[in-house]
Amino acid sequence: MAAQRLDIRELHWTAESEDHVEEHIDASWVEELIEGQDYVAFPNKEDHPPHFRMLIGKTPSGVWITTIIRPIDVEQGIWCPVTGWPATHIEQRKYAKAGGRSKLPRRAAKRR
To answer: Structural domain boundaries of the chain?
Structure first.
């Protein structure tokens, strides 16, 4: 799965999407991730809707998260968060391998 660059100018939250994200992580972290622009984007898993994207990154406050977003209006850069969770060590390594700019925490670095 190759990393992609996305033009995300606005997040459109529905009550349902915000509630679902809040079940796993603080929804404000998703906003913070987008504003800080320290993420890499990938197509979502094959068994999920094809236009959804998975973002892995680090918020400016230092929180590693993974979030799934769906397009509302790609030309206008409007996306809707679907879910999110704390990024796993594997996801953090995937972020680094794709060229993310933050240093990984020690435990996420690949062991030799």
So the answer is: 10-100
